Predict the 3D structure of the following.
Amino acid sequence: MDEPPVQALLAALTRGGIAARFVGGCVRDTVLERPVKEIDIAVDKPPETVMRALEAADLRVVPTGLKHGTVTAIVKGRPFELTTLRRDVETDGRRAVVAFTDDWLEDAKRRDFTFNAMYADPDGTIWDPFDGRADLLAGRVRFIGDPDQRIAEDHLRILRFFRFHAWFGKPPLDGAGFDACRRNAGSLSSLSAERIAKELLRLLAAPAPADALEVMAEAGALDHWLPEYAGTARLKALIAREDALDPLRRLAAIVSPPATAVAKRLKLSTQQSLRLQLMLEPAVPGDLENRRAALYRLGTSLFIDRVLLEGPDDWRAALALARSWTPPELPISGADALALGLKPGPQVGALLEAVERWWIAGDFSADRAACLAELKRLAHTA
C-alpha cells in the first residue's frame, strides 16, 4: 500500500471523488501474511468516471472490460485492475448481467465466498461483512448466504469451492458447501471447456491439491469433464519427486491414457495436447543406453516429465542425466545424401532415418565420417 505506484493511483482516485478499497487476493494474501502477487481495487463510481480521473492524473488506463465495470490502470509500468461495485441483474449459471452501484454491501453479497468479500481501505482497515477473515484463518471455504443460490448464479463456483479449498482450506470441508456442490455437480456440463480447464489447472497448481481432488471426485464434480480420473496415488508420488510444480504434468498424473479424449474435451492447446499425450506413453527404458536414446527422442523437458511421472527406482539418476547430458545432433543431413547423387524425395528421408537409428544404437558414438560411410553403404544397397 505504501509503494509509490499504489499511492499515485489512490491519489488520482481521491482527487476524482472516487472511494477505493483493495479487494480479492491481495487482501487474502495480506491476512495470511503471504506475498501479494497482484493488486485489485474496487471503486464506487462507473468506469467512465474512473477513466476520466486517471487520465486527468496523466495515468495510462485501458478499458479492459467496460461492460463488467473493469478498467486497468498502468502506473509506472505496473498494472492495476479497478472494478466498479456491481449488483447482479440477471444470472443463468454461466454469465451475469450486472448493474453498477455505489453500495459496498450489494457488491459484497454477489461474491462467492466469505473471504473473497473482504475489502481493505487505503489505511489498511479491513471491511469484512461476512466474517471472511475468521473463515480464512480457520481454513474454511464458506459460501456467502445460500450455497445453492450462489451456485445457481455461476456453476463454476463448484470448482472454485474445491480450488480455494486446495489453496486455503483445512479439513473438514464446510458441510453445507460440499453438499450443495454435490447436489449441483451435474450443472458443470453446461460450462465451456475453456473455463473448466482453466479452473482445473489452477487447482492443480496448489502446493498439495490431492485432498481437494479426492473430495471433488466424491462430489461428482469430475464425472462429466474428467471421466478418465484415476485417483491421486500417482499425483502424491509425483509431488514427492518434483522440484518445481507443473499443472499439466499433474493433470497427466491423475488421468488414465489415452490422452486424446482428455485434451479434446478440455480444448487444450495443440502444444498442451501433444505434451499430455507424450507424458502418458509407456515408461522410460531402464538402462542408461536406452535412456540416452529416450532423452534424444523426447527432448529434455518431456524426458523429465516421464521420469517424474513414472518414478523408476533410480529416478534421481535419470534426472541427473537429463540435466547433465546434452543430446547431440545427427552429424549428417539431407545435403550429404544429395551429394552422393541421390534425388530429392522420400528415399533421402528414409536413408537418413536408417542412419539415425544406427547412430542411436551405437550410443551416439559415431562421428561424421562414420555416419557418412554408413549413409554411403545404405545408399549403395538400397
